[in-house]
Design brief:
unfolded protein binding, rod-shaped, alpha+beta, 26% helix, DnaJ_domain, HSP40/DNAj peptide-binding domain
């Protein structure tokens, strides 16, 4: 090891403040961030950091000075030093009860070197697919999933969740082998189809069968929604395909609002109704009535 006093450019009688100022000046000049790609500066920065770590610790500095006075000079070599002194043996010799091998045992893990080490790698992420029915996606709720490693997690599916939406659970992935943070769990939501409802953006669509009488004369009918049944007024003279809107009865949006429910009326005829058949056989459409008028070319 080089003489730490010479490395920092201070005298052996330098005060703690003088040592600190010398280190700060050199560290600023030699820091790898200020000298990218400069190996010489990087090596000097390491030595400066090691020297400061030793001399900034009063106890270790005193032990180092004692070791130097005992005949161990700069370089920590194994050959005889000046004056024919034999090499100082850290492992076997003690001075004033101190094991001098401990003085230098951790110098090469100084904070200057550690700052250049990459952070521990994050654990691996895991992916899982969660299937919920249409109403569960609409209303939201908590669901338990079992991850590939056997762990059970409770997943909060937000109201209005869409098919294919991915939920991120931070820190619920695999543990890091290097002591870093755990990975994340990504839960893909799959929404199963509903018997009556379908989704279009944030709107819910529904085809509602009505009778000929309800279509012709108008009526108030009960309509299913994702919040439960509500009343809907069917206008008189409605045809199949007429679209009615129930505002605020759709899926929750990202902005905290609700989409609508779009109700398409579908006139449904009974399979067998003699009275209706007899009436229609004698019924004469009004003059000028042609349901396919707009389709003529």
């Amino acid at each position: 090891m080089d003489d730490p006093y010479k490395t920092l450019g201070v005298s052996k009688t330098a005060s703690a403040e003088e040592i600190r100022k010398a280190y700060r000046k050199l560290a600023k000049e030699l820091h790898p961030d200020a000298n990218p790609g400069n190996k010489d500066a990087e090596e000097r920065f390491k030595k400066v950091s090691q020297a400061f770590k030793l001399l900034s610790d009063a106890e270790k500095r005193a032990e180092y000075d004692a070791a130097a006075q005992a005949g161990f000079g700069a370089g920590m070599g194994g050959a005889a030093g000046a004056g024919g002194r034999r090499p100082f043996n850290f492992r076997q010799s003690r001075h004033q009860g101190a094991d001098f091998s401990d003085i230098f045992s951790d110098l090469f893990t100084d904070f200057g070197t550690q700052t250049r080490q990459p952070p521990p790698r994050k654990g691996a992420d895991v992916r899982y697919s969660l299937t919920v029915d249409f109403m569960q996606a609409a209303q939201g709720g908590k669901h338990r999933v079992v991850l590939p490693d056997g762990r059970k997690l409770e997943v909060a599916v937000p109201a209005g969740a869409a098919d294919g939406q991915v939920l991120r659970l931070r820190g619920q992935g695999e543990a890091s082998a290097a002591g870093g943070p755990a990975g994340d769990a990504y839960i893909e939501v799959k929404v199963s189809e509903h018997k009556y409802f379908s989704r279009e953006g944030d709107d819910v669509r529904l085809e509602l069968p009505i009778s000929v009488k309800e279509a012709a004369l108008g009526a108030k009918v009960r309509v299913p929604t994702i919040d439960g049944p509500v009343d809907l007024q069917v206008p008189a003279g409605s045809s199949s395909g007429t679209l009615l809107r129930l505002r605020g009865r759709g899926f929750a949006t990202a902005k905290g609002k609700r989409g609508d429910q779009l109700v398409r009326l579908m006139v449904a005829l009974p399979a067998s109704d003699k009275a209706l058949r007899d009436f229609l056989e004698t019924w004469t459409p009004p003059s000028g009535y042609d349901p396919r008028k707009g389709m003529r070319s």
